[in-house]
Amino acid sequence: MNNRRERKKILIKKSISDVALKFFLAKGFTDTTVAEIMEAADLGTGTFYNYFQSKEDVLHSYLTEKINEARHILEAIQQSHGEPSQKLSEILLAAGKSYEENRQLFNMYMQFHRQNPDAGRQPPHGPLFKEILVDIVSEGQEKGEFRKDIPTAIIIEMFMGLLQSTMTSYLPTPFMDNLRHKLSLFLEGLAVKHQP
Predict the structure, then answer these.
(1) pTM to 2 decimals?
(2) Percent with pLDDT over 70 in the chain
(3) Which pLDDT belongs to residue 63?
(4) Nearest alpha-carbon partner for 74 in 133, 7, 156, 137
(5) pLDDT (mean) for 134-160
(6) Where in the sequence of the chain do the CATH 1.10.357.10 domains occur?
(7) What CATH number does the domain located at 55-190 have?
(8) Rounded Cα distance, 77 and 79, in Å
């Protein structure tokens, strides 16, 4: 009996979330109301608050789910047997792909926070990827693949900056091409130069 009730709750929450996301994409986050979400979901308006605190909570919940999916991919990359530079490449491209597939919703979320600085929510990813990146950079330094004269924190900040600068780029270059070019420049500067 409890399993059926839990499944029903999960389905209702997913239904509300799916309808809300369609409205956010079609009308915009601000112009979407809880009442119209719930009418389209064929549920009472009060039911919304049994599952979510606000419209922003719907968006945050969805993005957190997407980031958790990406985290599993990144952890698998981290544990793979590839070289550290290959792992960094795969991680950046996987994160870039996740962003590109959900770009409009990520941008809505960030715009909401720029307009509502008192909302008190952290970005859904938080410090999620830092530990994975530190491990890979340290591995690359230990194996002599990456330079040791640059502090790990600087390398991580620059690496994360590749994605951030691509996310805010106004160049006509397609997103993933832009990211690949920046990654290539980054890895060339990070590589240990072997003397002939």
Answers:
(1) 0.74
(2) 91
(3) 79
(4) 133
(5) 92
(6) 55-190
(7) 1.10.357.10
(8) 5
Q: Report domain 1-52's class.
A: mainly alpha
Closest CA to 129 of 105, 81, 178, 162: 162
Give the model's confidence band at 81: pLDDT under 50 very low, under 70 low, under 90 confident, else very high.
Answer: very high
Output the CA torsion sign for 169, 175, 180, 181.
negative
Tokens 């990827």 — which residue?
A: 129
Number of C-beta neighbours around residue 2 at 10 A: 6
* Rounded Cα gap, residues 106 and 99, in angstroms: 7
Structure tokens at 3: 């399993």
Instruction: List, as own/partner pairs, every contact residues 80-85 make where C-beta atoms lie below 8 angstroms and the sequence separation is at least 24, other chains included.
Output: 83/140, 83/143, 83/145, 84/136, 84/137, 84/139, 84/140, 84/143, 84/145, 84/146, 85/140, 85/145, 85/146, 85/187, 85/190, 85/191
Residue partners of 122: CB distance under 8 A and separation at least 6: none
| pLDDT tens digits, one per residue of 19-31 | 999 999 899 888 9
For CATH 1.10.10.60, list the domain ranges present in the chain. 1-52
Task: Tell me the two tokens of residue 6.
Answer: 């839990």
The model's pLDDT over 150-164, given as tens digits with 9 standing for 90+, comes to 999 999 999 989 988
